[in-house]
Amino acid sequence: MIDLRSDTVTQPTPSMRRAMLEVEVGDDVYGEDPTVNALEARAAALTGKEAGLLVTSGTQGNLVALLTHAPHGTEVILGELSHIAWWEVNGMATLGGLMPRLVPDVDGAPRPEDVERAIRPRNIHAGRTALICLENTHADRGGRPVPPERIAAVAEVAQRQGLPVHLDGARVFNAAVALGVDVRAITQHVDSVTFCLSKGLSAPVGSVLCGSQAFIERARGIRKMLGAGMRQAGWIAAAGIVALNENVERLAEDHANARLLGALLRELPGLRLEPETVYTNMVFVDVTGTGLTPAEVGARLAEDGIRVDVFDDRRLRLVTHLGITREDVERTAAALARLVRTARA
């Protein structure tokens, strides 16, 4: 089976499994799990922050960050297609009493001037703006990496207005590899960042939230409130340490395979890449020119042993990751070529 639905389907590597088997653990709620402590310190150093906090998922990490930064009843500025706004079960509103204020993010991040306009003036009739959130890579904009200077421009607005910035960096290492920069070139401009261990980095579970020591101390209490005092969590952290040590630079292979897949699909009649550029490890393809719906194309590919994500009523999403080879990409393109020929016959 070739599974291109998401990079969340990755399996732990042999070195991760060995590390998980041999791990030293303790009670993390007491701060006594040495492997969790080592992962959090490693994550903080990589992102240029003072401290880190292991969380169960990127969604939980983002929610912890929002609840730590923003008081109940305040507003959070977000990109209009951001993951936090669309795919995190409205946790910010349900659990935090936070109001999303959406601004355009067509090229992966809001423009600084749009952010500045969205900041509420001090007025008895208006809710208070408490936080600005960015995303990198931007999943719903084609896995687009946002360059450091764009992050810096938004952060400059935030600093001038006395507001913190949180980065949903679920795939921030994909962004850094694609842009050819150290991840700290991106994260240095934000007050907090969450990144996932369980996507392209291939660990089986977990994300890390990083920020200042004071911020993480407050966030630790929020994490406990959300039920994520995981006790002997070192077995999760052990795989995360291997992920950070071994799998960051490897992300370039996923990007190369995605570019190859995009190049092959561009040649097929009835298919159109949207966006046209393959930025990192995601390929979005509009299949309406085949006369079939994305669900129909997905079902036919499944019969060939290929699983893809039915993204919306026009497009499929195909995501490369550890375990997807060049041969898998070529087989997927060949299957789509056969499907297109049959559909147009």
Structural Rg: 21 Å
Class computed from helices, strands and strand pairing: alpha/beta
Question: In this structure, how is the largest beta sheet organized?
Answer: 7 strands, mixed
Low-pLDDT parts are none
The backbone outline, from C-alpha atoms, is globular
Beta strand count = 13
Structure notes:
The model has no long low-confidence stretch (mean pLDDT 97). This protein has a 7-stranded mixed sheet with strand order 2-8-7-6-5-3-4, with helices on both faces. A 4-stranded antiparallel sheet has the order 9-10-13-12. It is globular, with a radius of gyration of 21 Å. It contains 14 helices and 13 strands. It is of the alpha/beta class and 345 residues long. The protein starts with a strand and ends with a helix.
